[in-house]
Prior knowledge:
Strand order of the largest sheet: 1-4
Strand content: 5-15%
Shape: globular
Order of helices and strands: HHHHHHEEHHHHEEHH
Distance between the termini: 30 Å
Helix content: 40-55%
CATH class of the largest domain: Alpha Beta
CATH architecture of the largest domain: Alpha-Beta Complex
Largest sheet: 2 strands, parallel
CATH superfamily of the largest domain: Nitrile hydratase alpha /Thiocyanate hydrolase gamma
Oligomer: single chain
Number of helices: 12
Structural class: mainly alpha
Bound molecules: fe (iii) ion
Amino acid sequence: MDANADASTWTEYSAYSVGMSDHHHDHDHDHSELSQTELRVRALETILTEKGYVEPAALDAIIQAYETRIGPHNGARVVAKAWTDPAFKKALLEDATKAVGTLGHVSRVGDHLVAVENTPQRHNMVVCTLCSCYPWEMLGLPPVWYKAAPYRSRAVKDPRGVLADFGVSLPKDIEIRVWDSTAETRFLVLPMRPEGTEGFSEAQLTELVTRDSMIGTGFPKTPGAPS
Ligand code: FE
């Protein structure tokens, strides 16, 4: 498999990678403080509220949940616990939905969660080729590139090339397994515990787990390395 992405794909891909910085830049046109999307959302919210279809308080609760309760810190906690608790790890790999449930997560979209373990022989990577299925409860909102066509189409055809774009290079003898998410089944990658973390507490380990390491497009942070 060719690890080098061709130039055009790279450019296309890099454009999407910009989204990873979480700074969105609109095109160079004049715009008010609210973007077109925000204006549409405001209008829709107003209409729905006026017609009595939604409770503003309920909307606020959902938004707050995504800002605070739901996010990659949930997945990081699961991973760190699996690294420190062999019984939990076994339970997680057997039935992730059930194991995650024991930690008190409210799981709706993660109803059929499958954890896949990275080993020295195998690296796992998650994609949704059809759309953007993603374990929201575990990882929060999906990154822009996860929903973008270049990632979705290339992850299956050229996983090594995609990983190279993310700065992840794996020895040729490591098998890469790509998991295609669906509306029914979401995947969480259990990355390998970084070296040099002997004696780390679960809380310390949680800090090392990155979102991308749980999608399979990155590694956990190494202690002492610049983040
Ligand atoms: Fe999908």
